[in-house]
Amino acid sequence: MANISVAVPKKLVENRVAVTGEHSQVCMYDTYLPEDAVGFSVSELTLCAMITGTKIMHHVNDQKLFRPGESYVLAAGESVNIDFPEARLDQPTKCLTIEISREKVRQVANQLCLADSTYEQSSDMLPMAWHTPNAPQTQALIHKLSHVFEEHSRDRMLVADLAITELVLRLLRQNTCHFVLQHSQDEPDSHGLNAALHLVRKNVTSDLDIDMLCKAACMSRTNLYQKFKLLLNCTPAEFIINTKLEAAARLLNAGGNITEVSYTLGFRHPSHFTRRFKQKFGLSPRQYIGQSAANH
């Protein structure tokens, strides 16, 4: 039987609401005061999703700006220090956390079968800390979980558990993508798919087409498409666009002009670039620049 609880208010977290089930706990935090270096530790795999506002996450020697439309995943036993630069009384920083037991992750992982044994090791191994933009499907699941507290019924945790099962599946699949991409950087010549990925990353300002990737990978169009869908959950064309958008974010963070960045990366019109950028990051390029400037 699921239960819902409200934590005792603390100095920084004015409100924490939790829904707890057998293998998971969903919490919503509202933070009302700006503060730096607030400690946060987890005992199980935990996904944090920004709903409103921003945070700066410090893990070991790494620092990440954490925005809506993104997830920050911590492995069991990990901890971070968090800065709340934007929190205020009339506009609190809101964050959803989903804590998932080892058993739940194991159940889902055991049901996944990766056809390519090259990457089999990644199906049950997640990074210690992982910051990533949310795919549309993941964002939809987070939206559903953020409203689970409004479910005033005995079905509350069942609804949450169904969404969490799919969320774990997507995390494991996405981690496979992470492993594949890292492997392609470390060993770009080890096999055909890595060669194609390396080509895209090294030619982000070029106008690549599928035939060029097929030539680099020594694969047919059908085989290349199948490999991308299986291991990266996207088509080759989608991977090219996503790689360009990630490069765009880095250029904008470095002070790049929106129009110049869009043309440099091969987008035919800034409006098309703006639309695709917002689809990926949940913010327009102008909003992205504004948030980056506010947190530096």
Automatic annotation (TrEMBL):
Keywords: DNA-binding, Transcription, Transcription regulation. Residues 194-291 form the HTH araC/xylS-type domain. SUPFAM superfamilies: Homeodomain-like. The keyword Transcription applies. It holds the Pfam family HTH_18. InterPro entries: AraC_XylS_family_regulators, Homeodomain-like_sf, HTH_AraC, HTH_AraC-typ_CS, Tscrpt_reg_AraC-type_HTH, Tscrpt_reg_HTH_AraC_N. GO terms for molecular function: DNA-binding transcription factor activity; sequence-specific DNA binding. The keyword Manganese does not apply. SMART domains: HTH_ARAC. It comes from the Bacteria. This is HTH araC/xylS-type domain-containing protein. It comes from Photobacterium ganghwense.
